[in-house]
């Protein structure tokens, strides 16, 4: 059986990611009890969450970084300093773990991630997304924890983007009011073509959205970007956490192509029982997505010596599927 390896080990890391990974890898997987009391003091007092400005100040005092008001993104030189990463790593893991506890501690984790987001926003930066994803996996927290933290950073980014767009639109409208259109014949084609272009864009966007679907009846995580959902499921697989991989597979929005990639990944690593369980899950709740390709399922059954089931599954297939060259080869070997 091939050894499972983290996808990060297969990539040539950028300098920022190398610095983060090198510094973070030497930190123990779970925060010590003494660390936990320090982290609690950053955001909690007498069991209640402190005001956000105070949490932000305490977090950066703990990190040993001076932050100006209003907060601006710190330079990479400061963020990637080993001393800062050594302190940030256990804090990040502790924060993820709080989402699996009582409400006040969840709010404390929210406050910590809110303090960090202007400088280490995982929704804006691939470097920080990979860093926090790694800390999430090492924290042992639930998938909900990572998604909750990611959403907090994503929401702030969306609000800032909307505000920026609104400002630009207001400035553009002001400019349009000051300018006069010369010649009605020139103006008409512009007015007529704009809706057409808009409709084309909306249609294209709608078609893209239709390709992404959640298997589960719950739509709680349908907002998760495809690249984030894909990375989470594959990382669970690569870390050998297959039960969690299938939970994420069913809960997160994925395309049919990505779902087939997950099957292929499990097959490549010879995780045949997991392949069959994934097919069961897909069939049980996958009414709004395309069926998975049958060949990996037949192959998994065959590898596990369940030959009667191979024949039974083959007989259930439409004639066109039975006649496929790869299916015929599986049945002949």
Describe what you observe in this structure.
With 333 residues, the chain is mainly α. The chain has a domain of 112 residues. It contains 17 helices and 4 strands. The strands form 2 sheets. It has a two-stranded antiparallel sheet with strand order 1-2. A two-stranded antiparallel ribbon has the order 3-4. The radius of gyration is 25 Å and the shape is elongated. The N terminus is likely disordered.
Q: Can you summarize this structure?
A:
The chain has 333 residues and is mainly alpha-helical. The chain contains 17 helices and 4 strands. 68% of the residues lie in helices and 2% in strands.
Radius of gyration: 25 Å
The average pLDDT value, as a whole number, equals 80
List the helices and strands in order: HHEEHHHHHHHEHHEHHHHHH
How many helices? The count is 17
Uncertain residue ranges: 1-15, 180-197, 203-210
Largest sheet: 2 strands, antiparallel
Strand order of the largest sheet: 1-2
Q: Quick one: overall form?
A: elongated
What would the keywords be for this entry?
mainly alpha; two-stranded antiparallel ribbon; 333 residues
Secondary structure blueprint with pairings:
Elements: H1 15-25, H2 33-43, E1 44-45, E2 48-49, H3 52-63, H4 76-79, H5 82-98, H6 103-116, H7 126-139, H8 143-178, H9 184-210, E3 212-213, H10 226-238, H11 242-251, E4 254-255, H12 256-268, H13 272-285, H14 294-303, H15 307-316, H16 319-322, H17 325-332
Antiparallel strand pairs: 1-2, 3-4
